[in-house]
Amino acid sequence: MKEKIKRKGCHAQILSLDFISGCSSDWPVAGLGYIMGVNMLEKIKEIIAEQLAVDASTITEDSTFKEDLGADSLELFELIMAMEEEYDIEIPSEDLNSLKSVGDLITYLKNKGVE
């Protein structure tokens, strides 16, 4: 079995995979789901928790950045930069006003093709 894997930090994206058969112990099936983007919310929560110094378990899709998570303008700017770096996209400044909650950010990223 040959696969091409693009690594970024501690995460990987499978670029092509002929078939999945006899997965080795270091590639559990549940892990493949995570790698392929099933847990986008969990990854975003990790980034938010790190950038805003909050407990990831308190973050939900309904959490607002300013009111619920206590982010100021500089922290929001740094958070957006971290998302741009993690997902290799650009988020124009004119789009920032529409990103009020974690759910808004997830929807925005999915609309930009991030999974």
Give a description of the structure.
This is Acyl carrier protein. One of its GO terms (molecular function) is acyl binding. Keywords: Cytoplasm, Fatty acid biosynthesis, Fatty acid metabolism, Lipid biosynthesis, Lipid metabolism, Phosphopantetheine, Phosphoprotein. It is found in: Cytoplasm. Its main location: cytoplasm. This protein has a domain of 73 residues: ACP-like (Non-ribosomal Peptide Synthetase Peptidyl Carrier Protein, Chain A, Orthogonal Bundle), CATH 1.10.1200.10. It has a two-stranded antiparallel sheet with strand order 1-2. It starts with a strand and ends with a helix. The protein contains four helices and two strands. By secondary structure, the chain is of the alpha+beta class. The longest helix is centred in the C-terminal third of the chain and has 15 residues.
Q: What is the CATH C-level name of one domain?
A: Mainly Alpha
Counting DSSP H or I runs of 4 or more residues, the number of helices is 4
Q: In the CATH hierarchy, what is the superfamily of one domain?
A: ACP-like
Strand content: 5-15%
Give the quaternary arrangement of the chains: single chain
What can be said about the biggest beta sheet?
2 strands, antiparallel
- Output the structural class: alpha+beta
Instruction: Tell me, rounded to a whole number, the average pLDDT.
Output: 78
Distance between the amino and carboxyl termini: 25 Å
Number of strands: 2
CATH-defined topology of one domain: Non-ribosomal Peptide Synthetase Peptidyl Carrier Protein, Chain A
Percent helix, as a range, is: 25-40%
Order of helices and strands: EEHHHH
Radius of gyration: 16 Å
Low-confidence stretches: 1-38
Question: What gross morphology would you assign?
Answer: globular
